TrEMBL record:
It comes from Hebeloma cylindrosporum. It is found in: Cell membrane. SUPFAM superfamilies: Glycoside hydrolase/deacetylase (SSF88713). This is Carbohydrate esterase family 4 protein. One of its GO terms (molecular function) is metal ion binding. It holds the Pfam family Polysacc_deac_1. GO terms for cellular component: plasma membrane; side of membrane. It is a lipid-anchor; GPI-anchor.
Length: 251
């Protein structure tokens, strides 16, 4: 009888010590990155691709011994699996830029259910892995909007959430001159690190603003690196060989 009571008490204590599903989610909740941590680094990032200006952006970056980070959607400006877009994703990866997730259809993730969130993450990760062989360790939520559900899904997928500490304003409709002024003022302030938001989908970003941004920031001694490098971390969870194209490569 006494043994049964002791066993009952033991099981009760053990059960109370077990974490709930909600507690487990909180433990694996993704970290939110808003700035770099390696001094004197500038991470130039580009959202909303793959798009045709990626080659022009790469040309500017390479001419300046710089690398960037591209947050790709699965289906925003076309399907990531199209021959042209898959080529762009692979090109960015092969050029040494960091490839990361912007989720599938550029939706406001804070409006989605858990299952919908998982789909937005998983489909993009799968596409990037098929095309490059690498699984992203970083993602950026569209519009920079996230909640605990987004962080839980990102954490479950072992991804960190990247925001920014400087917005060029290219997607806000401000003039090219105003975007350049923002970069000039940023360089004048000379913060320890810079984590920018730009978009791959604007010709003015590739041809006008980016060269100006690099010139201004380089004059202040910044080194142009990927997001992973500006944090001293690995860009991918794992790296392997790209997959062969199949009928499954569709949006």
């Amino acid at each position: 009888m006494l043994a049964a009571v002791v066993l009952t008490l033991y099981l009760a204590v053990l059960g109370s010590a077990l974490p709930t599903d909600q507690e487990l989610e909180r433990r694996q909740r993704a970290s939110v990155i808003t700035r770099c941590t390696v001094p004197n680094t500038a991470a130039l990032t580009f959202d909303d691709g793959p798009f045709n200006y990626i080659y022009d952006i790469n040309k500017v970056l390479k001419a300046n011994n710089a690398v960037g980070t591209f947050f790709f959607n699965g289906r925003n400006y076309g399907c990531i699996y199209s021959a042209d877009n898959a080529k762009r994703v692979k090109f960015a990866y092969d050029q040494g830029h960091q490839v990361a997730s912007h989720t599938w259809a550029h939706k406001d993730l804070t409006t989605l259910s858990r299952d919908q969130l998982t789909s937005e993450f998983a489909r993009t990760d799968e596409a990037i892995k098929r095309i490059t062989g690498a699984t992203p360790a970083f993602m950026r939520p569209p519009y920079g909007k996230y909640n605990n559900a987004v962080l839980d899904v990102a954490g479950a997928r072992k991804q960190s959430v990247v925001i920014w500490d400087f917005d060029s304003g290219d997607s806000s409709g401000i003039s090219v001159a105003a975007q350049k002024t923002r970069y000039t003022q940023l360089a004048s302030r000379r913060p320890s690190t810079v984590l920018t938001l730009n978009h791959e989908t604007y010709a003015s970003t590739a041809y006008d603003v980016l060269p100006h941004a690099i010139k201004q920031l380089r004059a202040k001694g910044y080194k142009f690196v990927t997001v992973a490098q500006c944090l001293g971390r690995a860009p991918y969870q794992n790296v392997g060989a790209p997959a062969a194209r199949t009928a499954a490569w569709t949006c």
